Automatic annotation (TrEMBL):
Gene3D superfamilies: Complement Module, domain 1. Residues 3-88, 89-172 form the HYR domain. This is HYR domain-containing protein. It comes from Rhodnius prolixus. It comes from the Eukaryota.
Amino acid sequence: MLLDNEPPVFQNCPSHPIIVRRGPNGIEPVNLTEPVAVDNSGSIARLEVKPHGFRTPVTTFQDMAVKYVAYDFDGNVAICEINITVTDDTPPLLSCPQSYVIELVDRQDSYVVNFNETRRKVNVSDASGEVNVQFIPDKATILIGTFENITVVATDKYNNRATCHFQVAVQATSCVDWELKPPANGALNCLPGDKGLQCIATCNKGFRFTDGEPVKTFSCQKKSPWSPTSVVPDCVSEDTQQADYNVIATMTYRANGAV
């Protein structure tokens, strides 16, 4: 008697995952043709399906694997495994860091910021697993006294995206002499004091402050705001002669009627 070592064969076992579709009313049922196994002996001893009791059509909200196992009468086994994949159209959960200000002590015109260093402050998660996080732009040269808008894009493995935004500003730290700008047509002289700085603003010859004061004084204590303000007013010309205008008005009246 010859021993049969040839296992059964599934004739229609899918080679690719079955994709669960989403319709107008949500997830649609999966309807697949049950794989058929044949054997060289002419018959199959038994066919098992795992999970037990699996039938189509079936509605599933998560990925699952269905395994068909065919046995012949000599104990040979064939397996058809079908992966059912639920499409993911839900974007990642994403929250940006709070906008923040970079304060500089040393005088400079601009400051280079690498926003990728803020990655640890970005909260992101997705049920599908790993999420790619991108900063747009990823770095920038920010002029002192200005800011940059940054967009964070989070993308999951199904190409679903979420975005959020924050700002980064660069400014001089409080109570440094270069935080004040000299007045137009004038000068600014700053001297260190016991607890901070004192700056005197004056106007060039032929110019004055609009309120008529000969000088303006600004002071601050370390890491405190300037008093009375951090904005030095410009000087204007002392020549206050106003331009002369000759205006000729003409009125025409209509007889026996309204004006």
